Amino acid sequence: QIDLRRANNCGIMLTKVKMPLPDLMSAILALDDTVLDADQVENLIKFTPTKEEIELLKGYKGDKQDLGECEQFFMELMKLPRVDSKLRVFLFKIQFRSQVSDLKRNLNVVNSSAEEIRGSVKLKRIMQTILSLGNALNQGTARGSAVGFRLDSLLKLSDTRARNNKMTLMHYLSKVLSEKLPELLDFPKDLASLELAAKVQLKSLAEEMQAINKGLEKVEQELTISENDGPVSEIFCKTLKGFLSGAEAEVRALTSLYSNVGRNADALALYFGEDPARCPFEQVVTTLHNFVKLFTRSHEENCKQLDLEKKKAQKEAEPEKAKGESENEKDELSHPIKELDISLQSQPQTASAK
């Protein structure tokens, strides 16, 4: 007697499949993903008979029609050698296309972002500007002649404030660029893939690549064994061979792309003078993504402040008074306080000198 709860759940599953058992078995053997989808095959895997259930039904000599729906289903599955393995191969075949597509898309995002970052002349010039600002602010100190700075110093620009506590170094950078190098302000456009890249975890991509390779190995193993099954697995083997011929070529290309991505990810850290082991790809792109967001926000705040000042100046009845306030504000913004510090370093590790 099959466990009643399991038998009931099996019956519910078969009701959802909505096809006679002979047709279901034909679809399994033909690996027909137009008839069965991934969810249905996953459910079939859950309800393959256990060793105990096989032993229980193996000795049954009566009329199969007297058995319950679940028992009849188990009896049909028992006709297929290694049915669990065959169903898992079927599931891999169904999911293969989307797995490869998803992984390829994420690998291309990594490649694109690395290429965009290293190729952005505007970003490089901004890094050089930050270095110059830092050296000017720290003039006369041990940090005043730095040749580079750590990448994470970019985020400290928003934490470093002037004495009046109103302006950060990020605001000041935006002001300098607006006045001296306005052509650099749209540098985020160079980094179109950055936001997507900041969501990618290389460890996850490695796991996906490994899962695809292992899945393909199991397909190859099952094909080799199934070729000795005889007529029962003939259609299964023929279909699997057709799938494998294309899948193996795709995985070879994917493996090559994956290796290339690993090299590019490491090269990106090295480009900024960082050790890939200490500052991996994820840290580089997340830092840059946050820098872009902070810079954009500071620039918008500067623009709003300037707009308010213009409106205020227009309302002033006394031109001389307005002029005086404007000069005071200009003096405040043009003389950053030496307390501003972005932790510049004198070692030849640089986020700009490349």
Automatic annotation (TrEMBL):
Domain of life where this protein originates? Eukaryota
- Polar residues bias spans: 343-354
A Pfam family hit: FH2
Which ranges carry the FH2 domain? 1-321
The annotated region (Disordered) lies at 306-354
Residues folding into a coiled coil are 202-229
- Biased composition of type Basic and acidic residues is found at 306-341
Query: Which key words are in the record?
Result: Coiled coil
Q: Which residues cross the membrane?
A: none
**Do you know which InterPro entries this protein is assigned to?**
FH2_Formin (IPR015425), FH2_Formin_sf (IPR042201), Formin_homology_domain (IPR051144)
Q: Extract the SUPFAM superfamilies matched here.
A: Formin homology 2 domain (FH2 domain) (SSF101447)
Q: Which family does it belong to?
A: Belongs to the formin-like family. Class-II subfamily.
This chain's protein is named Formin-like protein
Q: What is the organism of origin for this protein?
A: Aegilops tauschii subsp. strangulata
